[in-house]
Amino acid sequence: MVVVCYCIGPATASAIDSKNFDKYFKLLPKPQKIEFLSGKAFQVNDLRTLCLNGITKRPVLDQPLYNLPISNSPGKGVLTLSLSQSKDLPSSTEGYILEIKDGQITITSSGEPGLFYGCQTLQQLLEDAKDQLVEIPSLRITDYPDVPYRAVHLDIKYHLDTDHYYYEVIDRLARIKVNAIIVEFEDKLKYRAPKIGADNAMTIDEFAALCRYAQDRNIEISPLVQGLGHVSFILKHDEYKHLRDNPAIDWVLDPMNPETYKLVFSLYEDAIKATPNGKYLHVGGDEVRNYGNYTLGQKYGKTPLEIQMYWLNKVCEFATAHNRIPIFWDDMLLKYSGLIGTTESLSLSNEQIAKIWKDNQQKLDQNINLFPKNCVYMRWAYDNPQVLGNVKAMEWYKSHNLKVMGAPAAQNMSAMLPRNNSIFLPIKNFCRLSNDIKLDGLLCTLWDDSSPHFETFWRGLYYYGSLSWKYEDIQPAEAQKVFRHRFYAPELSDPSFEFQDQLEQALNFWDTALLNKGRRSHYFMNTEMISLPDINKPGEWSEKYKERIAKANTEIERYQQIKGKIAKATKLARRNYYSLALMNQINELQIYSSNLLLSLEKYDKASGADKASTKSDLLACVDSFDNIRKAYEDVFSETRFLKNPDGYILDQNLDFMLANGTNNSDWMYLFELKLNNMIKQQLSN
Predict the structure, then answer these.
(1) How many helices (H) and strands (E) does the chain have?
(2) Closest by CA position to 503, among listed 568, 553, 565
(3) Strand locations in 88-156, DSSP E?
(4) How far apart are CA 637 and CA 515, in angstroms?
């Protein structure tokens, strides 16, 4: 084996101690406790061998720990991994004590997951020391998670990435101590049932291999197979139309048809085989609508709540029989009880919320016998999880001895890039609530509705990984600083490198820049394009859109700032260069709308001889879009497949999902393509 050594001389910075430790070392997640010890500091190239005490197999490790040869005993230059049942250790098997002293490193835990996580922390210490040419002070870290189940949602219903990228995602999630994934398959798994698995779907064996890889990194993967609603991936096919609750709509299964369960259970069986080490089976159950027999409570002589619970009990019985714990989105239960409006709205006062609960809680209480006891009720809230109604809902479950988890989001429906500081504040608030209420776990959702690249999720995931492990009342600017340091390089921690917030703001304009009405993420819902200049009324168009034109000029300045920051960051970054390349191309794509508006303004205001030249410039701007698109897709498609298989059937898209709009990548640029065609047609007349 090759021993990797870094040639690092004496520290070039001042001595590292408790007063300046945080300046150089930014651990994510932040450990529960750090104690500084007397003794000589540790240099990266002092680490030479690995000693295993009480374990026979070394954990999966990254560089520089990966290539350490085995030593028979502890000593100077040795990393000792030790399993122990000492009372001094954290009670969680994911907890550990990491001690660096007298040239030795020891990581001790009561469980192998704790040893793995101790190594993740050590690797960050070594990385920071190497990056900044400093020594690691003598210290003891005692660490354990606040939240036992820290899952991330992998939603692949509208796209697939390359196999190697999924393995890379597993590695990166493990480094921030995420310990679970819930994968939402829809039609991207090769089920036995005909037609349902798309032609490009992953096979059961392919996904099972990924799950085994994840298990070695302390990540347990469980499946989510949608039902009772959100089943267009099934009901769009002629073979299964007879299972529709409403014959005209592909959204909801008929919960009273025995054939529904025969089919769904076969999908569950395949999903379980694809996730052989999974603990849970997420059965969906959210947003059941479109008013068929079930949702109107007709035909069956039962209320919608009773029918929902009939379905839930049957699928929960299946899960238990197959050694899985069922998870269920709970929003329909709260809706049928008249309480859903209290769970996120900021327009209701606490007094109003309390009254609504006082008037309606009985609907839950009276039906408590319908609630399966073996189920986890997952309370999702993506914008304002701290509101009283959401808290009361989770407390109601706990008061009735039901298991409850929370679901924040690092991506909701935004196109191209998550917004609102990567949804920092809702993530932070839900992690705080999880501590306060002692939830059974958290799931950070990453909805694929507008299908941004997974690389755009990492900032939000780092927030989630950090705050779900150890909650702290950190402010956005400090959280961003730690993210840039950890994700790119210590040199990028300075606030002057914060380009992602600026890019979010730029995309907020890009969303609607070419629209009179509507928004990009719901492009089927009452959208209306801007008009074009009237050649017979010069200047009228510019006056009509003067505020938008002024905003476009502002966006040109913002674009230049973002471009400069990313260029500088690319030179200084030590890792995750692909993410920077993608962000750069997002910036190049979003500014096209502003450039087009300014070209239209020049054309509108021109007269005489200038009209011909501005017309030529406008056409050149339109023609440039093909190259902008190609440059963006060249980067995007390094890991992401952009096109559906030939013959792929789109569903009815009743929830107006952007990524469900076209079988090729046109859905990313619908407004640009439409306006470009309008301009070409008008100028050709």
Answers:
(1) 21, 17
(2) 565
(3) 96-101, 104-109, 139-143, 150-155
(4) 28
Residue 8 has pLDDT above 90, yes or no: no
- Look at the pTM and tell me if it is higher than 0.85: yes
End-to-end, the C-alpha distance of the chain in Å comes to 72
Query: Residues near 283 by Cβ (< 8 Å), separated by ≥ 6?
Result: 224, 225, 227, 312, 315, 316, 319, 326, 327, 328
Q: What is the 8-class DSSP label of residue 64?
A: T
CB 114 within 8 A of CB 95: yes
CA distance 190 to 188: 7
Return the half-sphere exposure (C-beta side, CA atoms, 13 A cut-off) of residue 463: 30
The 10 Å Cβ neighbour count of residue 211 is 21
pLDDT in tens, 70-103: 998 999 999 999 999 999 999 999 999 999 999 9
For residue 659, the Cα-to-chain-centroid distance in whole angstroms is 16
- Tokens 């168009």 -> residue: 541
d(CA 460, CA 425): 10
Q: 157 is written with which tokens?
A: 């219903």
Q: What is the pLDDT of residues 419-432, one digit of tens each?
A: 999 999 999 999 99
Written as one letter, the residue type at 398 is K
Longest dimension (CA), the chain: 89
Q: Helix 304-321 vs helix 258-274: angle between axes, to the nearest 10 degrees?
A: 40
Which residues, in sequence order, are CB contacts of 259 under 8 Å at separation 6+? 242, 243
Report the distance separating Cα 678 and Cα 549, nearest Å.
19
Pairing of strands 325-329, 280-282: parallel
Neighbours of 216 (CB within 10 A): 13
DSSP 213-262: HHHTTT-EEEEE---SS--HHHHTSGGGGGGBSSTT-SS-B-TT-HHHHH
Q: How many residues does the chain have?
A: 685
Cis, peptide link before residue 64, omega less than 30° from 0: yes
Do 149 and 405 touch, CB atoms closer than 8 A? Answer: yes
C-beta of residue 187 within 8 angstroms of C-beta of residue 157: yes
Task: Tell me which H or E stretch contains 571.
Answer: helix 546-572
User: Under a CB-based contact definition with an 8 Å cutoff, are residues 491 and 484 in contact?
Assistant: no
